[in-house]
Amino acid sequence: MYLTGLFLxxxxxxxxxxxxxxxxxxxxxxxxxxxxxNILEAIYLLSTGNSHxxxxxxxxxxxxxxxxxxxxxxxxxxxxxxxxxxxxxxGKKAKVNSNSLKKINELLGYLNTIxxxxxxxxxxxxxxxxxxxxxxxxxxxxxxxYRHNLKEYNKVLKQRNNLLxxxxxxxxxxxxxxxxxQQLIDLGSKVILKRLETVEKLGILARxxxxxxxxGSETLKLKYKSSLDLSxxxxxxxxxxxFDKKIKSFRxxxxxxxxxxxxxxxxxxxxxxxxxxxxKYGSQxxxxxTALALKLAELEFMKSEIGEYPILxxxxxxxxxxxxxxxxxxxxxxxxxxxxxxxxxxxxELSKLDLNKxxxxxxKGTLTSI
Length: 370
Ligand SMILES: Nc1ncnc2c1ncn2[C@@H]1O[C@H](COP(=O)(O)OP(=O)(O)OP(=O)(O)O)[C@@H](O)[C@H]1O
Ligand SMILES: [Mg+2]
Hints:
6-stranded mixed sheet; binds adenosine-5'-triphosphate; binds magnesium ion
């Protein structure tokens, strides 16, 4: 899939921007603080309904204005459509082909994107919450059943946590927990099963990519680390059984704490290179290579799930990667993935690349084609 056009109005430091986009490579060059990332943010917003760098909607509206507007024209295998977003201080509204969506998160699945920026190193180095967010978004973009289960699970989790607090404060009795336990187990097990399958698939793809980048000298393994101590290849009913036993064995602890301590909301993903935990012991370079392999695995994963490649947003990553990694990255995307690249200067590997591309220079929210 690809974007054929992008239109911005009063978005961040852009007044009005109208762009026809290249099907292959779009390159935005400019000094710091000129509006390069803002463009990628707008595309990400069309894809997920959220910004990748702020939860505060009003930050995206130009300082001198009341509202902002973003529109993208999307071309997919069997259909073309437009996505529109109206951004106001009180919230965002989305339309697909001029039809209003009830909720902003119904946008997920129309335009699939993968974003890669220097902060993605946090995926490997950072806290489990970041990895859960990653895996949730990855699956949610391609699977509406998962989206639904995850949403319901989070609702049940919230209610159950409230009840646990009430029991701790002696406002409620333990008998009430049974109903919530059952729902938590049913929904949570479905979430875990899908994550296990996905981490397995992503793991195979990431290992292949990683081997090529390291010339076969290192082996990357991805593992799903569950608070339920699960092994792979479990059926849904086996996961439910384990969940049930675990919840019962943690009964008193959960009441003492006043929140749920087992379930997919406490799970994590593990990266090992040559059997060593790369989060704890990896060098910067190894962590970077792992993050890159993971992003490239995402591309192939989405392709296998939805039958076409998503759009790739690369924010200033060439400054962080050495020549060999840049070269490999460009080889993978060449002529098959629509890619948006921002950079402060034209990278050597990029200028060598013989492919269809559009170059733009960005200065204070104004673009010129070069
Ligand atoms: N709501 C807003 N209204 C107007 N200008 C804004 C708004 N939000 C951010 N900006 C401006 O946008 C610019 C930053 O844009 P952006 O993050 O895209 O920069 P960049 O070109 O990616 O820079 P870098 O190379 O440092 O990453 C800054 O000048 C900032 O002041
Ligand atoms: Mg930037």
